Amino acid sequence: MKKIAVVILNWNGAKLLKEFLPSVVKYSSEATIYVIDNASTDDSLLVLKEDFPSVQIIQNKENFGFAQGYNEGLVSVEEEIYCLVNSDIEVTENWLTPILSHFEQHSNTAIVQPKILDYKKKTHFEYAGAGGGFIDKFGYPYCRGRIFDTIEEDKGQYNDSRKIFWASGACFFIRKNVFRELKGFDTDFFAHQEEIDLCWRSFNRGYDTFFCGQSTVYHLGGGTLSSSNPRKTFLNFRNSLLMLTKNLPTQSLLFILFGRLILDGIAGIQLLFKGKLKHFISILKAHFSFYALFFKTINKRKSNNNVFYYHKTSIVFDYFIKNSTIFADKN
């Protein structure tokens, strides 16, 4: 058995598999490659069987979404390290080598993310992960290389290896034993920000998450849900509130959560004035869904140490008031 499994979750992504899976097969000789199929209704399975016979297929009974889809499929994957890769990721030569080396040399590292650049504009970082993730005082995620919608050009400024707070689910390496210790992703999230929640829970257990700038991948982004889709707005706003409720320390919970609800309200009003009625409604639905899951989520706090890690300022204030638009401005 090889040490690492490269695992792609697929749902009706036959076109993406044809375009992006060849690079994974070509440059991943160190790994066993799996595709977990979330009950696709297109010709994904036919494409896999005919064009990629070396890839192992795991079939889920239904479309479980990102979180449960991986949880269900990974039950039968026994390699020591999981590399969870979106179906719209192009990898590069020797992309696995530095990350495997890092895991071997740092026993306390549970999670690693490579440098993620934009497939459509390869000179720049990609929104989902960029040079490694952090969260601010109110739980807003941002990255080295991306704060809100400001994307940095890759000039080698993040070619380092350093500790981060969260790794992007677009290309997410995790030790199997830690993934199982944490019982995988939270299935109530369905999709979006479940990887940040998992990293936070890993942090609460004392494990490290690292960025490895010596490994590069390119991410198309929006392969399943584009940023213009109100469903994405709903999941991001709802899941961020769930994550805060699960992981904030007791003494900070009410203050931070109340502040976040106000900021969400302001964001919703801005969207309404911009004519984005569906996104405004999605934020309202996100809050009602959060309230419905509140007590269930509170009960999940029992298994956490609830350590809050963040830059002590608000990224909203820094970005919109102080015009701090790149990661270097905050450090």
Protein model, in words:
This protein is of the alpha/beta class and 331 residues long. Helices cover 38% and strands 20% of the residues. It is built from ten helices and 13 strands. The protein has helices at 14-26, 44-51, 65-73, 97-105, 176-181, 194-204, 230-247, 250-273, 277-299, 315-320; strands at residues 4-10, 31-37, 56-59, 81-85, 89-91, 109-118, 133-135, 141-143, 146-147, 150-151, 161-164, 171-175, 208-219. Strands 1, 2, 3, 4, 5, 6, 11, 12 and 13 form a nine-stranded mixed sheet that branches. Strand 7 (133-135) and strand 8 (141-143) form a beta hairpin. The radius of gyration is 19 Å and the shape is globular. It starts with a strand and ends in an 11-residue tail after the last helix. The mean pLDDT is 93.
Brief summary of the model shown:
By secondary structure, the chain is an alpha/beta fold.
